[in-house]
Specification:
Length: 651
């Protein structure tokens, strides 16, 4: 009996010793966020599966569904306003949805995010602290649920990003660490070296600088609708928009009831009539509603509507969508319109206000802009329309910052050719400078180098240059590729001709050709001269000035009467002669007094960048050479005679 009791006692002791060990092995570790006294960011892969098609021949292209969660938690002492987090996707991920966030670059979903992307909070943009919420995690934290497709990573491997981090100004993040093989974590803390222009307790973030900014100001609000004023401001000395088109995404079923100063490009109420809006607003006459698209596109009005009592009477409106650089005309660097927006439940409350997301703005032959997400800023103030010495304040204001960018794979919209007094041949625009034809013919090479041309060929459309090109090659003993290279496919081309070079100064001639069907009013061009800019003196047929704050750049625009670059037109005899481009030309003079030792023919006399209406143009890869030039004052007539004879022989 005693032995049995001893055995039971020993067994109890063994069990008592084993159970805590087992419990310790299965109990979840303490959250890593507890040790982060800043902003804790984590990315956790939660699920995935192979989806069709089944690509056994190429496993790297096999698609897989993935689900994951991005967590941003504020464990710091200050509220985190307008949080933004980077996820370094690396498996050519195609993101289908992201709950609780939008892409900070203004791109809508679904879209490819391979290479990484920044997310911004929506509708929850700010994260409060534990101190001011008594530890309420729902106000301190946001969790973004991702659903998408990744390629090439099969189970048991996990498609993790390269990095996650907070990208708000004033924070530094430690190196991310892995928890197992499916969760990445990082702690971001305040940067002690960062000098902020806001103080603790400020309710709003400061306004940011950018090439172009858009203000979304709610000026009047009611229970079911509000009036908003949208202000587009250009801040880039070389930025410009013509026939601007502005678009965004409504996130909560909003629709545009009326507008002043601008108009939707499509009047469409179908989505309202057959949607939830029509069911909710049964007493509203939708025949007067302007647009119910979830992503409307807004265009400017013509000047004839500026004083229209219904559509106009808005300052800075109605300019055919033209926004000029402030360096050209500050009064025309802004565009404004107003709109009446109806809301949908659950936002039926005069204080429930939310801006649209995924903003985009574009123009014709203008730079490409990438816009960020709206950021709540201090309410804008407007001059009192009654003339009283007081300002009215917006109910709420958001700022969208857009910057000029070069999208991957995008082609320029203009090109440059080079020529010089010491070489009779012109270095033409590059082959396919503005993109190759989608279905090039068998007689056109997209990879062959453009062939040197006689100067007369610059006045002829590319499709009519063949005879001149072949005659010139024959005369100059130039090799012609077979097939011949494709054209530049540019609507605007610019010729920079080194005109003269003397001991005390030199001159160049710039000629702008418009090969398109659209004329350009109030055009401008700019050239960046890396070494020669300090010696700039003047232009003779344009207005020109050296830009302050822009490296070595000369800004040119047409003088009164020459500020209109017409479109390509028919020749006097269209059945026989090729079409004629619109053209503007001027000589530019430089002194060598401020640039001693400058070698103009060796390259200093040619621009390193050329812009037309804000768009950076494609430059040739080579400069005109002087070794093939033989100076002869009586050479022009024989050259032209040989070209004419060659053309007649071809016929």
């Amino acid at each position: 009996m005693a032995v049995s009791l001893i055995r039971l006692l020993v067994l109890d002791l063994i069990i008592a010793a084993i159970i805590p060990i087992a419990l310790c092995q299965t109990e979840a570790p303490s959250p890593a966020s507890d040790s982060c006294n800043g902003i804790f960011v984590s990315y956790a892969y939660t699920d995935g599966a192979q989806i069709p098609p089944n690509l056994k021949s190429d496993p790297t292209e096999q698609p897989y569904r993935f689900e994951s969660t991005l967590t941003v938690l504020n464990n710091g002492l200050e509220e985190l306003k307008s949080w933004r987090a980077f996820v370094g996707f690396q498996h050519n991920e195609y993101l289908v949805s992201a709950s609780g966030a939008v892409l900070a670059n203004g791109t809508g979903l679904p879209t490819n995010v391979g290479g990484g992307v920044v997310f911004a909070g929506y509708p929850s943009t700010d994260l409060k602290t534990a101190i001011e919420t008594a530890g309420d995690v729902t106000q301190m934290q946001v969790q973004v649920k991702f659903l998408g497709t990744q390629f090439g990573v099969a189970s048991p491997n996990v498609p993790m990003p390269t990095n996650v981090s907070l990208v708000n100004d004033g924070f530094v993040c430690s190196k991310p660490t892995m928890q197992g093989n499916s969760e990445m974590q990082v702690c971001c803390t305040k940067d002690s070296n960062y000098k902020s222009n806001i103080t603790i307790g400020d309710e709003f973030l400061p306004r940011q600088n950018g090439d172009l900014t858009i203000m979304f100001d709610v000026t009047r609000t009611y229970e079911s609708n509000y009036w908003a004023q949208v202000t587009i401001s250009n801040h880039n000395p070389l930025g410009r928009l013509d026939n601007w088109m502005l678009s965004w995404d409504w996130m909560q079923g909003e629709f545009i009831n009326s507008m002043k100063g601008a108009y939707p490009d499509v009047l469409d109420t179908t989505d309202c009539i057959f949607g939830e809006q029509g069911q909710y607003y049964q007493g509203l006459d939708f025949s007067n509603v302007l647009n119910c698209e979830s992503r409307p596109t807004i265009i400017d009005l013509p000047p004839t509507k500026a004083n229209d009592t219904t559509l106009g009477l808005i300052p800075f409106c109605c300019r055919n969508g033209t926004i000029l650089p402030p360096s050209m005309d500050p009064s025309r660097s802004t565009s404004v319109f107003q709109m009446n927006v109806y809301k949908m439940p659950p936002a039926i409350n005069r204080s429930e206000l939310s801006p649209p997301q995924n903003w985009n703005i574009s123009g014709t032959l203008n730079p490409d802009y990438q816009c960020g997400s709206p950021v709540r800023v201090s309410p804008s103030q407007f001059a009192n329309p009654s003339g009283l010495p007081s300002n009215s304040t917006a109910v709420a204001s958001w700022q969208v910052v857009c910057n000029i960018t070069q999208p991957k794979g995008a082609s320029p919209k203009c090109c440059v050719s080079f020529s010089a007094y010491y070489n009779e041949s012109v270095v033409p625009c590059r082959t396919c400078a503005c993109g190759c034809p989608s279905t090039p013919s068998q007689t056109c090479s997209t990879s062959a180098t453009a062939v040197l041309l006689p100067s007369e060929a610059l006045l002829v459309p590319f499709e009519n240059r063949s005879a001149l090109t072949k005659a010139w090659a024959e005369l100059k003993h130039l090799n012609l590729p077979n097939p011949m290279p494709c054209g530049d496919n540019c609507g605007v081309s610019i010729n920079w001709h080194l005109y003269t070079d003397y001991s005390r100064g030199w001159t160049a001639r710039i000629t702008i050709f418009n090969w398109g069907e659209t004329s350009f009013a109030d055009w401008f061009a700019a050239v960046q001269m890396d070494k020669a800019a300090p010696g700039f003196q003047k232009t003779y047929s344009f207005n020109a000035t050296a830009l302050d704050g822009v490296n070595n750049t000369i800004f040119m625009q047409g003088i009164e009467g020459l500020n209109y670059l017409v479109a390509e037109t028919d020749a006097a005899n269209p059945l026989k002669d090729p079409r004629v481009p619109g053209k503007q030309q001027s000589v530019i003079s430089f002194t060598k007094k401020l640039t001693p030792g400058i070698n103009v023919p060796a390259g200093a006399g040619f621009p390193s960048k050329v812009f037309f209406n804000g768009e950076e143009c494609s430059l040739p890869l080579v400069l005109p050479t002087s070794n093939s030039y033989r100076k002869s004052p009586v050479m022009t007539i024989p050259v032209l005679l040989l070209i004419v004879i060659f053309m007649l022989m071809q016929q």
